[in-house]
UniProtKB/TrEMBL annotation:
Domain Disease resistance R13L4/SHOC-2-like LRR: 175-362
Record's protein name: Leucine-rich repeat-containing N-terminal plant-type domain-containing protein
Source lineage: Eukaryota, Viridiplantae, Streptophyta, Embryophyta, Tracheophyta
Signal peptide boundaries: 1-24
PROSITE patterns: PROKAR_LIPOPROTEIN
Positions of the Leucine-rich repeat-containing N-terminal plant-type domain: 27-75
Bilayer-crossing regions: 767-790
Record-linked Pfam families: LRR_1, LRR_14, LRR_4, LRR_6, LRR_8, LRRNT_2
Length: 813
């Protein structure tokens, strides 16, 4: 009986004494960690003025056991560091990737997490060669760039690799096949391009594959169907082409298949039926996906999220659906749905999100649908009619409702005030009539209200100063009474044009410090323009009202103003020379400077702003308003001289002062209006010669000088020579020039003008900006709004998303 005794003695020694003998982590590992801490502290100190203590590294002190430090975990036997959780250490700024080098010397590491640390630069690939025991590597949410270093592919023990949300480029190499133990491969939100290597089929342990928001192209590799352990495939927002491989049906454990926003074609393979574990199927916005929407999709019992909108997929009119799934999200946007709202939705009692926009649905809004208590309902661009069931508004759930561009009619129910959760409410372009119930002001979460283009009448309700309403469009209705001026402090946009509002221009508009857009054109508003409007104003349109008095001298305090349209009023007095100090009209437009980015950020877009452009009414798409700089003071009773300072407004595209009583000379300085395309000074009392400097206006294509008292030669330039319609110059005193075929006594002959280039320059601007098909935009917008509200973006990516959104919209027709 000696052997067992010996053995237990030995075990006792091993487990209880040995650790106490060498109670500290290896000194070289401690040293490496301290070095890392030092480097990090140095860098942060160098970058910031205020002292930032790295709270998490407080316990990292020399001469202590690094196994007892926070964020560090050691193997209990070998006492070597095996886990480092260094995520979210750096509060802001940026640190260099070389910072990681000391850490990478710890070859015993199994888990390394350095996510969310503002690390920039390339991944120090050579540092990884000794990490032969690494199982999990998380470097996500940093600013790593360059490509994926090949050394990573030799980490044979790796089970989880997360490099998402960086700026990693290059391609994904076939060497990835070396990582045979990989369970999760997450490369989302980088800029990796090229094809998905077929070698990915060797990663037989893979359960999760996310390559979303990259630039992968080419086909989905057939080899993917060998990865039968896959549970999630997220390839959305790439440029992946060709058909969805039929082999996808062999991935029996697949619960998420996200292929939205690619270039896929063909139909939904019938093998998808075999994916009985499928919970999420997202195929939106693949313009090439076509064919019938198979009704068996609704027999996938576990399916919760189904997004098929924005394809060429067509609803199977003959197929009957009796869903076995209980969906939470359903998008069938532009899927050719016809007839009434399908009543198989009746037992989809878990729906949170329903999008049926851009179909040919008709009939009324069914009461049973209202009673489903859905959070987001988007059914714009259909042919739905009748009145809205009052119960639609008696719900705590509804946060987004868009029914724009249908044929709904009747009154907006009183119950609308019950919408305690509603944030976005869009009912524009219907036939709603009658007053807007006062109770609407009880919907205290309301951010955006679009009721434009209906037949609503009566006075518009007063919102309280604590209201959150930021964007309001009630244009093109029949509202009357005093101009509403009672809104919340956070009001950004008020579009109330084309109504029957009366009363004086309210002083209250001064109390909205964030107001960017104020459009009141085509009403019957009187009074005068007050001083002290918000300096954040970018657009002010009061066209076609009865505004009197003069333009206030301190209008130049509105330094962001880019569109000022006061035409067709009764303004008198002289043009203040401070107009020439409107800095917003001097700087060249930049997409980001515009405070409109707020709205773009929220994906909010309201109807085009109507202005007079080249003698016809044009809608300027709000998303592009930052490109415009317009000053229209035409059809007033303005007197006096033209201030020379107007020539400072370098980025002005339109200057219309026609139909006033302006006298004196055209200032030489007008030659400085280098971006001007439309210059209309007609129907005034201007005298003297046309300044020669106007020949500098190389983008000018619409000119009005008629009905003045101008004399002398019309200046010549390749641009001006082309403006030879006699109406431009009619009814002046003694103008001469080749444009009107009146020879000047001492005019010198010029060479014929060159044609093409200027014309093109004009065209590109015009085509890009004017007359966007509103419906499509709105749909895009709503998707975005909804996307925003249903899944909040991770905080650090918001900028990137916003740019993407702009890009997406810029590419729309
Ligand atoms: C911080 O600044 C000091 C002196 O300016 C410099 O010597 C040191 O290398 C810098 N450290 C880092 C990590 O940038
Ligand atoms: C890897 O280990 C070898 C041998 O111990 C050593 O010479 C080399 O410097 C290590 N490389 C890195 C990057 O730590
Ligand atoms: C990566 O970023 C660093 C620092 O921002 C920069 O100096 C370097 O040129 C970038 N490398 C690549 C390949 O873009
Ligand atoms: C698509 O990916 C790009 C990066 O490639 C990103 O900027 C954009 O925001 C993404 N779009 C969406 C809708 O997620
Ligand atoms: C699917 O998942 C189940 C449960 O997690 C597992 O038992 C089964 O082995 C998996 N199937 C495959 C092919 O990996
Ligand atoms: C989309 O896919 C088609 C083939 O289906 C291909 O011809 C086309 O080039 C692809 N477009 C893009 C932008 O990748
Ligand atoms: C639908 O069914 C009708 C008769 O039941 C048939 O005539 C028609 O061709 C079918 N349409 C489609 C698209 O299958
Ligand atoms: C929905 O109703 C259909 C019959 O219309 C029925 O076959 C199906 O089981 C129901 N589904 C759910 C999820 O209740
Ligand atoms: C505007 O209101 C006046 C009376 O205040 C009324 O006579 C007129 O018809 C209204 N116009 C419209 C377009 O509703
Ligand atoms: C306009 O700006 C000037 C100086 O920038 C300031 O003194 C004046 O009070 C401002 N006017 C109004 C009405 O805010
Ligand atoms: C315009 O601005 C300049 C410089 O800021 C200032 O000197 C001038 O008085 C201003 N002119 C008017 C008319 O406000
Ligand atoms: C001809 O030119 C002279 C000087 O160049 C000028 O004074 C005169 O007014 C011009 N005559 C006409 C008719 O333009």
């Amino acid at each position: 009986m000696q052997k067992p005794c010996l053995l237990s003695c030995f075990l006792f020694l091993f487990f209880f004494l040995v650790p106490q003998l060498s109670f500290s982590c290896p000194p070289d590992q401690r040293q490496s960690l301290l070095e890392f801490k030092n480097l990090l502290t140095q860098t942060i100190k160098n970058h910031s003025t205020t002292a930032i203590t790295l709270e998490g590294l407080k316990t990292w002190r020399p001469n202590s056991d690094c196994c007892k430090w926070q964020l560090v975990r050691c193997n209990t036997r070998s006492l070597q560091v095996i886990e480092l959780n260094l995520n979210s250490l750096v509060p802001s700024g940026s640190v260099s990737s070389s910072l990681l080098r000391p850490v990478l010397r710890i070859s015993s590491l199994a888990t390394l997490d350095v996510s969310s640390n503002f690390i920039q630069g390339e991944i120090p690939g050579d540092g990884f060669v000794n990490l032969t025991r690494l199982v999990s590597l998380d470097m996500s949410r940093n600013s790593f760039n360059g490509s994926i270093p090949p050394q990573l592919f030799s980490l044979k023990t790796l089970e989880r690799l997360d490099l998402s949300m960086n700026a990693i480029g290059g391609t994904l190499s076939g060497e990835i096949k070396e990582l045979k133990n990989l369970h999760e491969l997450i490369l989302a939100e980088n800029i990796i391009e090229g094809e998905i290597p077929p070698e990915i089929g060797s990663l037989t342990e893979l359960r999760k594959l996310s390559l979303k928001n990259n630039k992968f192209s080419g086909p989905i590799p057939l080899s993917l169907s060998k990865l039968t352990k896959l549970e999630a495939i997220d390839l959305q927002n790439n440029s992946i082409s060709f058909e969805i491989p039929d082999g996808i049906g062999s991935l029996v454990n697949l619960s998420t298949l996200s292929l939205s926003r690619n270039n896929l074609s063909g139909g939904i393979p019938s093998s998808v039926q075999k994916l009985t574990n499928l919970k999420t199927l997202e195929l939106e916005n693949n313009h090439g996906l076509s064919g019938k929407i198979p009704t068996w999709l609704f027999s996938l019992e576990k399916l919760k999220i189904l997004r098929l909108g924005g394809n060429k997929l067509q609803w199977n009119k003959n197929g009957s659906v009796s869903p076995l799934s209980k969906l939470t999200h359903l998008s069938l946007r532009s899927c050719g749905l016809e007839g009434t709202i399908p009543d198989w939705l009746k037992n989809q009692t878990s729906l949170l999100f329903l999008e049926l926009s851009m179909n040919r649905l008709e009939g009324s809004f069914p009461k049973w649908l209202a009673d489903l208590k859905i959070g987001t309902i988007i059914m714009s661009d259909n042919r739905l009619s009748g009145s809205l069931p009052p119960s639609l508004f008696q719900t705590f759930n509804l946060s987004v409702l868009s029914l724009s561009r249908n044929n709904f009619s009747g009154q907006i129910p009183d119950t609308i005030g019950g919408l305690s959760a509603v944030m976005v409410l869009m009912l524009s372009e219907n036939n709603f009539s009658g007053p807007v119930p006062k109770t609407i002001t009880n919907a205290y979460r309301l951010l955006l209200l679009d009721l434009s283009k209906n037949k609503l009448s009566g006075e518009f309700p007063r919102f309280s100063p604590s209201s959150l309403l930021a964007v309001l469009d009630i244009s093109s209705n029949e509202f009357s009474g005093d101009v509403p001026a009672s809104f919340g402090l956070f009001t950004i946009m008020l579009s109330m044009s084309q109504n029957n509002f009366t009363g004086e221009f309210p002083q209250d508009f001064k109390s909205f410090p964030f107001l960017i857009h104020l459009d009141l054109h085509d009403n019957r508003i009187s009074g005068s323009i007050p001083s002290g409007l918000s300096p954040s104003l970018e657009v002010l349109s009061l066209r076609n009202n009865s505004i009197k008095g003069s333009i206030p001298e301190d209008i130049s305090n509105l330094t962001s103003l880019k569109v000022l349209d006061l035409s067709d009023n009764e303004l008198d007095g002289s043009l203040p020379s401070s107009l020439g100090n409107l800095t917003g009209m001097m700087v060249s437009p930049t997409s980001n400077s515009s405070a409109f980015s707020f709205m773009l950020n929220f994906g909010i877009e309201i109807h085009d702003l109507a202005v007079n452009w080249k003698n016809s009414k044009q809608g300027l798409a709000n998303r592009n308003l930052y490109l415009y700089t317009l000053l229209d003071l035409s059809k007033n009773k303005l007197r006096g001289d033209l201030p020379a300072s107007l020539g400072n407004l370098r980025s002005l595209k339109l200057l219309n002062l026609s139909y006033n009583d302006i006298s004196g000379l055209i200032p030489q300085s007008f030659g400085g209006l280098e971006k001007i395309e439309v210059l209309d000074l007609s129907h005034n009392n201007l005298a003297g010669e046309i300044p020669k400097t106007l020949s500098n206006l190389s983008e000018l294509n619409t000119l009005g000088l008629s009905n003045n008292k101008l004399t002398g030669p019309i200046p010549e330039s390749s641009q001006l020579d082309r403006l030879n319609d006699p109406n431009i110059y009619a009814n002046n005193s003694k103008l001469c020039g080749m444009q009107i075929q009146v020879p000047c006594y001492n005019a010198t002959q010029r060479e014929p003008p060159e044609e093409e280039e200027e014309e093109e320059a004009l065209f590109s601007w015009k085509a890009a900006v004017i007359g966007c098909p509103c419906g499509f935009l709105m749909a895009v917008v709503i998707m975005y709004v909804v996307g925003y509200f249903s899944r909040p973006p991770p905080p650090r990516r918001s900028l990137k998303n916003r740019e993407g959104f702009k890009k997406m919209k810029a590419s729309s027709p």
